[in-house]
Amino acid sequence: MSQIHVSTTLNGDPVEYLCEPDETLLDVLRDRLGLTGSKEGCGSGDCGACSVTVDGRLVCSCLVLGAEAQDREIETIEGVAQGENLHPLQQKILDHAALQCGVCTPGFIVAAKALLERNPDPSETEVRYWLAGNLCRCTGYDKIVRAVMDAAQEMRGA
Asked: What is the H or E stretch that residue 54 is in?
């Protein structure tokens, strides 16, 4: 198979890469671009550990081909913080001790950020619904939900 040349925007920066036609975006991010924050938990879109946004839409990067990123805007967990300054979601995850092994954490943060960009004042039910595609085997969900609710409140300046 011949490789495909892709030009895209990744975490706000223009990026070009070559990939195989059947290579997933997750594999491109991790193996070709060295962005290892997104994790492969299942490879079938069931766990959310590989969540990224493509043109603002939350997707499992294990279900998207790398070639489909052509002319798209991709945001990964690596694009959430501003340099050394953590995003409020990242800080609240730490503050609420809402992680243990950390495999699911990048996906939860990317998903929660996508939610708060659409709805800065979600109810707890909305947060739980939005994060339902992300699985955690260690901490349970209450601390994660509380961290997202707390971050939303801080981001609104409430």
From this structure: strand 51-54
Distance (Å, whole) CA 54 – CA 59: 7
Same domain, 66 and 97: no
User: What is the spatial distance between Cα 129 and Cα 109, in angstroms, rounded to a whole number?
Assistant: 14
Beta carbons of 87 and 126 less than 8 angstroms apart: no
| pTM: predicted TM-score of the whole model, two decimal places | 0.95
Q: Which is nearest to 33 in space by CA: 71, 1, 79, 82?
A: 79
Q: How many structural domains are present in the chain?
A: 2
pLDDT digits (tens, 9 = 90+) for 51-74: 999 999 999 999 999 999 999 999
Structure tokens at 69: 């990123």
